[in-house]
Amino acid sequence: MKPISLIQDLVKDSAYEKGYQVGQFLGENIFLILGLLIGIIVVVIMRKTFNSKP
User: Fold this and answer.
1) Which ranges does the record mark as transmembrane (predicted)?
2) CB neighbours (10 Å) of residue 22?
3) Gyration radius (Cα) of the chain, Å
4) Residue 52's pLDDT is what?
């Protein structure tokens, strides 16, 4: 087999497609995900520091 045919077979694989879709989603929404994580960390620190729920 030629190396080109191996690459073409991998591109059509469903696992490759799912991985590509997940990577594309993370790439497009990286700032939203980071903002969510920072917000959760801030809420945990606020609850421990001020003993009040936001």
Assistant:
1) 29-46
2) 10
3) 21
4) 57
**54 within 8 A of 47, measured Cβ to Cβ:** yes
Task: Count Cβ atoms below 10 Å from residue 46 Cβ, excluding itself.
Answer: 13
Q: What is the 3-state secondary structure (H, E, C) of the chain?
A: CCHHHHHHHHHCCHHHHHHHHHHHHHHHCHHHHHHHHHHHHHHHHHHHHHCCCC
User: Is pLDDT above 50 for 29?
Assistant: yes
Question: What is the C-alpha to C-alpha distance for residues 47 and 39, in angstroms, rounded to an integer?
Answer: 12
Residues in Cβ contact with 16 at an 8 Å cutoff, skipping those fewer than 6 apart: 10
pLDDT in tens, 35-44: 999 999 999 9
